[in-house]
Design a protein that fits this description.
This protein is mainly α and about 80 residues long. About 65% of the residues lie in helices and about 0% in strands. The chain is built from five helices and no strands. It has helices spanning about 10-25, 25-35, 40-45, 50-65, 70-75. The protein is globular, with a radius of gyration of 11 Å.
């Protein structure tokens, strides 16, 4: 799923951000998404021209930030 955040197709990116947004509600998934490198691409997608991608990215980051370990990664990603 994280690799799909880097796809060239807005549709695939939109689906990936939506899925990560939902998966990031679970504590175990928060750790997995971060360890797979999901935070940096989500931060980059905050600047997407597609507002649905932006919404999913920001909500995904919000869900991920509930984990204290992820807060540090998010700050380091300059979110």
């Amino acid at each position: 799923m994280v690799e799909n955040l880097k796809d060239s197709s807005p549709d695939i990116i939109r689906e990936a951000t939506c899925e990560i947004r939902n998966l990031a509600k679970d504590d175990n998934n928060k750790i997995i998404i971060a360890s797979c490198g999901g935070i940096d691409p989500l931060v980059k997608l905050l600047y997407s021209a597609d507002t649905r991608i932006q919404e999913n990215a920001v909500t995904g980051l919000l869900n991920l930030s509930i984990s204290d370990n992820n807060k540090i990664i998010i700050v380091n990603a300059e979110a």
